[in-house]
Amino acid sequence: MPGDETGQLEALLERWQTSLDLHAKYSALDDARYWHVQPWPKHERPQRWIIQLARKRIIALKRLAIPLDRDILLMASPDEEIGGEKGAKWMRTQHFADLDPEYILDEGGFGSRDLFTPGKLVFGISVAEKKLLWLKVTAQGVAGHGSQPHDQNPNDRLTRALTRLLSEPLPSSDFSVLTTLKSRVGPLAENKFNNAIAHSTISITSLRSGVGDPPKANVIPSIAEATIAPSTT
Asked: If DSSP codes are grouped into helix, strand and coil, which group holds residue 18?
C-alpha cells in the first residue's frame, strides 16, 4: 500500500481484525473449566494468533520500508474446516487472476524440533491433506425411567456400535509422500501427530443424549447420537 502512513495502515488492519475475529475458523478446545491456565481472553477466538501473526508481519514490512516486487495480500476465509467451498476454493475459481499469487503461506507449514523425529529441527511442507468426512451415528430406542432398565436403551445400542467401530483395524499402507519423508528425516517419532500422518484414523468427537437440558439423570432417552471423524491416509 504505497504512500500510506504506518498509523493509517495499523488503523485499517485493526478494523480488519475486528471483522476477521468474527469470521476466522473456530477450532474448539476442551471445556474451559478444566484449563489450568487461561490462554487468551474469553471473547477471543482460538485461531486469533494466526491472524495476529500475519497482521504484525504486514505492519513490520511497512515500518521497515522493505522494498517489495509484488503485492502482499492477506486473506482470511471462514470455512477451512468444512471444505473451503465458499472460501479459498471460491477465491481460486473466481478471482485467481486478480490475486495472481507467486507463493502462499498459511498455517500448514511450520518448523518444529523433535516433533517429526527426535533431535532434529524439521520444517514441513504440506503437499496433501486427508479428505473431509464427518459422520453422525444415531441409535433409536424406547424411552423410560432409569430405575427400570430394558434392552432397547439407545445409549446401550450406541455404546455397543461405537465399541465395535473402534475395535475394527484401520487400513494402512505405505505411500510415496510418507516414504520420502522418512528418507529425509529418518524414523518418525511416536506421537499423535505422526500417527495421524502415517495411518488412517477415526475419532469420536461428540456424544449427545438425554432428556432435558441439562439431561435428567433418571430418564432413559429415545435417541442417542455420536459424531465421528474418520480420516483416510
From this structure: helix
The architecture in CATH of the region 135-231 reads: 2-Layer Sandwich (3.30)
- For residue 140, pLDDT over 90 is answered with yes
**Pick from 105, 42, 114: which is nearest to 72 by CA?**
105
Q: Strand runs (DSSP E) across 91-200, as ranges?
A: 111-113, 121-123, 135-140, 144-145
**pTM exceeding the 0.90 threshold for the entire prediction:** no
What gap in Å lies between CA 109 and CA 123, rounded to an integer? 7
Long-range contacts of range 81-87, CB-CB < 8 Å, 24 or more positions apart? 81/25, 81/26, 81/27, 82/132, 83/132
Range(s) for CATH 3.30.70.360 in the chain?
A: 135-231
pLDDT value of position 107: 66
Q: At 137, is the secondary structure helix, strand, or coil?
A: strand
Residues with Cβ within 8 Å of residue 205, at least 6 apart in sequence: 227, 228, 229
Q: How is residue 67 written as a grid cell?
A: 522494498
**Taking the C-alpha atoms of 48, 53, 59 and 65 in order, what is their torsion angle to the nearest 10 degrees?**
-170
As a whole number, mean pLDDT of residues 90-113 equals: 80
C-alpha cell at 195: 500417527
DSSP structural state of residue 42: T
Strands, E assignment, the chain: 111-113, 121-123, 135-140, 144-145, 201-208, 219-220, 223-231
Q: Please give the grid coordinates belonging to residue 19.
A: 471483522
Task: Tell me phi and psi for residue 168, to 5 degrees.
Answer: -75, 130
Q: Is residue 175 over pLDDT 60?
A: yes
Weakest mean pLDDT among 92-96, 108-112, 137-141, 180-184: 108-112
Distance CA 229, CA 204 (A): 6
